[in-house]
Amino acid sequence: MPRCLNSEELMEVFNELDNNGDGVVSRQELTTCLVKAGISMAKIEQVMNQLDLNRDGYITLDEFKTALGLNKEPAAEWRRLFIQIDQDRSGEIDVNELKSLFDETGMTVSRTVLDEWIRENDIDGNGKLNFEEFYSFVSSNL
Q1: Which GO terms describe its molecular function (predicted)?
Q2: What is the DSSP string of the chain?
Q3: Predicted pLDDT at 79
Q4: Do 57 and 69 contact (CB within 8 A), yes or no?
Q5: Where does residue 18 rank: exposed (0-12), middle (13-18), buried (19+ CB within 10 A)?
């Protein structure tokens, strides 16, 4: 039976992935390491998308810890992601911004599905999600 890694061991994994020691794991660093381990390019892309929360092409230590549930301040990490999604800096996420996010990651999600998701989580009924509405969803579902 596989054992779970402790926080220190997970830090070692991050540092191992960060070949050049610059404090972030680039797409190339992740790819190089995972290809050596026999992981397919499709799976590597999926892993990158799961770990690179702000979609800038780099995995920071905070993103790594957040994705693995180790970050002690998850609201701060979710706020950073919210800000990245909120392209027009309105303080709210609309269906166009969500659609753009999914398109950038290569995931196909229909506008109808995104509209429905916003409606289900839009507490104030304005057709957009503010941070509190967004965080309410992620904290109760992830």
Answers
A1: calcium ion binding
A2: -PPPP-HHHHHHHHHHH-TT-SSEEEHHHHHHHHHHTT--HHHHHHHHHHH-TT-SSEEEHHHHHHHTT--S-HHHHHHHHHHHH-TT-SSEE-HHHHHHHHHHTT----HHHHHHHHHHH-TT-SSSEEHHHHHHHHHHH-
A3: 85
A4: no
A5: buried
- Tokens 């800096």 -> residue: 89
Name the nearest CA neighbour of 36 among 20, 19, 22: 19
Q: In whole angstroms, give the CA distance from residue 33 to residue 9.
A: 17
> With bands split at pLDDT 50, 70 and 90, how would you rate the model's confidence at 104?
confident
- CB atoms < 10 A from the CB of 86, how many? 19
Indicate if the pLDDT at residue 121 is higher than 70: yes
Q: Delineate the domains of the chain, giving CATH numbers in brackets.
A: 7-67 (1.10.238.10), 74-141 (1.10.238.10)
